[in-house]
UniProtKB/TrEMBL annotation:
The keyword DNA-binding applies. Pfam families: TetR_C_11 (PF16859), TetR_N (PF00440). Transmembrane segments: none annotated. Residues 17-77 form the HTH tetR-type domain. It comes from Nonomuraea dietziae. InterPro entries: Homeodomain-like_sf (IPR009057), HTH-type_TetR-like_transc_reg (IPR050109), HTH_TetR (IPR001647), Tet_transcr_reg_TetR-rel_C_sf (IPR036271), TetR_C (IPR011075). This is AcrR family transcriptional regulator. PROSITE patterns: HTH_TETR_2 (PS50977). Residues 40-59 bind DNA.
Amino acid sequence: MELESRYGTVRPGGRTARVRAAVLQAAGDALVEHGLDGLDLADVARRAEVGKTTVYRRWSTTTGLIADLLVDMAEQSTPRTDSGSLDEDLRANARLVVKTLTDPRQGALFKAMIAAATCDERTAAALHRFYATRIEEWAGCVEAAVERGEVPEGTDPHEVIRAVSAPLYYRLLASGDPLDESVADLAATAAATAARAGVYRI
């Protein structure tokens, strides 16, 4: 699954690509420093060293800018692993989620984007596409596990991947409990065990 930016055609090496990259980097920096409430298009333009008119014309609102940040993050996401073991693949997935959510920059960005998605349909749609892309990517490791006979036929691969990340996002957004590799490994083991028991069979 691919995501296409709604904010201009991106030509590798072209001016449009350079402007978009600079603006998105600046927007991410501003979000990390000031949060959603402090995000301002004029400030982003200043940081990116591009004209305000360019930023307002292409993104129009701060939520539009956040939506494009999500598109960019999906485009840059790390490919899934293929270790030949469901346990190892799910562990890699969980550890990647934890690494992202605890990163000073990426974690702050996700919190700001999730907050924006609660009040803006365009950002919510971009967030949903982002996670659909990542789940689709990692579902392949469950499909491979089915072919190897590790989990039953009819197992829903998307539900298994959702089960890995759900408790991690709960800690980030709801409980505030620690997020580390041991928590990631526990989430992965729980999802793999449930999958082998047929919990996620359609």
